[in-house]
Amino acid sequence: MDFNIKGFSFDRGIDRIISAQDQPENRLPSEGRLAPSDSRAIPRLDQILHTETVGGALLRDLAPKLSQNDMLMPDRFHRALGEALDMINQQAGAHPEHDSLFKEAASVLREEQELRELLDLYRNALFKG
Fold it and tell me: Do 87 and 108 belong to one domain?
């Protein structure tokens, strides 16, 4: 039995009916390594029914803006972190008058690297069971 009322077919969910009116159906790319999105996915029904809160507005405005989404890939982020540490060490040698600032920045980056290595160690231990 086919139920059609004013062009709506009841074999689809409400999300698909609402989004079908506004936009064409999107398809995923067929291949390749995709970088993660810089923003979280928001279901279409939530966009329609919910208004923005103060906390949501603050989160949106304070979130860092990335020029390259592939920076969110763990291996590329780790490489960029190492490159930043090398650059800070080079600049520290070139500008000895700001040595304390460079040391503090390098210390923060080294601590970040150590925490990420510890996280990888714990995650690998969990996978081994």
Answer: yes
